[in-house]
Amino acid sequence: MKKPLHTILYSGIGIAAVLALVVALNFLAGIFKQRIDLTGEKAFTLSQGTREILGKLDTPVKIRLYASLANPDMPVILKNYARQVEDLLSEYQQASKGLVTIQKLDPEPDSEAEDSARLDGIDGEQLPNGDRIFLGLSVAMLDQKQSIPFLAPNRERLLEYEITRAISRVATPKKPVVGIMTPLPVSGMGSPMMMAPQSSRPWIIYNELKGDYDVRNIPMASTEIPQDLAVLVVIHPQNISEQAQFAIDQFLLKGGKMVAFLDPASPLQSPNPMMTPGTMPGSTLDKLLPAWGLNFDTSKVVADMTYLAETREGRQPTYLVLSENALSPEDVVTADAGNMVLILGGAFTGQPAEGLKKTVLAKSSKESELIDPMMAQMGGEAIVRSFKPSGIEYDLAIRLTGKFKTAFPNGKPEPATAQPQPSPTPAENKDATALKEATAEASVILFGDSDFMQDAIAVQEFPGPFGQRLVMPANGNLGVVQAAIENLTGDTSLISIRSRASRDRPFTVVRELQAKAESKFRDKIAQLEQGLAETERRLNELQSRKEGASQQFILSPEQQKELENFRKKEAEARKELKLVRRNLRTEIDALETRLKWLNIAAVPAIVALFGTGLALHRKKRSAAK
Fold first, then answer.
1. Its pTM surpasses 0.70
2. Which helix (H) or strand (E) is 613 found in, with range?
3. Of 68, 115, 180, 269, which one has the greatest count of Cβ atoms within 10 A?
4. 391 Cβ partners below 8 Å, 6+ apart?
5. Which CATH entry fits the domain spanning 48-157: 3.30.70.2190, 3.40.50.720, 3.40.190.10, 3.40.30.10?
6. Chain-wide mean pLDDT for the chain?
């Protein structure tokens, strides 16, 4: 009788101990939350940039999360997303070692929480029945406050960046000054040559910069750059004057910093009505670049068969989708960019002048060449047919650092006027104050394209819930632009966070296979076109030898033979082309099959082998005992 009683007693104690252990583990897990992130770019783990910003905090930060979880009309997708936001905020609280506190509020109608939400700039979204639902947050430190009025689930990849940026803004209320010099309506100023309705709207990049910096518009005709600028941003400086370039020159010699976006051809800029149809305006810094040892040819754009874009019109070798292989992993501007899309971009050539160091941020592949911008308007397939790879990796974006030397050794250039100006007196001569060499190290980042930051390329716009206009990054373009400016202003912590918002990985291996296969039959296409031209020339020559108007439309035996030979050659060439194209598809299909088997079978096979090995190891140990 005692043995069964002991068994029941021990079993009951064991079950109670297991229950207590499970409860304790759940309690500890609730305190020390840990998640396993299996995404390739760790999209659901706090980035190093966030941890750096949290590590700099020395004053408590309060985050209020407003979510209408008790409202039965709250969509389920928003309720689920609100819980995801709560989980992320708890990681902020843990990583900040208590300096970030979280307050969760449910703004029910006529409640103090609703009044608090409106004071924080979160008005909620009105439902058809008149009620309002809330899903937003505010970040406050002392008298500084930043709000995110609505947390959209389809912007989940930007959630960490938006929260961390709000914390950074309240922690550093004094914003660096950024000057923008451009002839384009970046700030939303209408232009008679910009007839599109959206031309009156500021560009997305401009709004983003205004949130982080004190943004000033610098006129293109400026003769002096304010020295309180942290960074000068020059966008598509078409027809920039020598006086303005001299002002930039002196700004850099005094230790200034600049990001410049040049362009050999800008298809997104509306052409001047007086301009020849089909032309696309280019821009460069023709006085400054040679002094720095560089050249930027505005008569050539880069075409690349490895990084070409696939559009609705087909393949576009001058529209480049640059993957991580084309971007520098060592530089913070492009290390986590993910991808960039360039539209008719140009290349920087030459070697930096003495005292300057060049860092390549973005480059083309060796399957690239420089072509005339007008050829790009003929269509992508026309470029593919005549493509001849140069074997050169062209520099598409570079960084120059060091002590610059002036591009104006003779001093400030005189303005171009119709009437000659009298020579200035010594007292009026300002050349004495013009610098010839830098007094401090400067930094310049140059991009060979300006279109890539425009809204049509950089973002995707779509209607959100409750009639909102939502904007999402279409690629890493805006992230690279912001990263370049942040890097030169000294704040690099946000770079690694924003870059995770867009991760488009084009199949560059497949693209390389296509480029190699196409190179095999590109000569065949050229031979076919050359044979066609030669045959047409021969036919015209025979036609001109005929006598009389009555025979102009009758083929002679020589012409018939010539035409028959051409058709035979054409049939043979087309047959060869079909064979090569079939081989190309076979190579691509084989690669796709290998990738599928790797993804579907490799991981289960590894798990099975690991399990089998573990079982054999345990069996061996048991047999040894």
1. no
2. helix 603-624
3. 68
4. 366
5. 3.40.30.10
6. 80
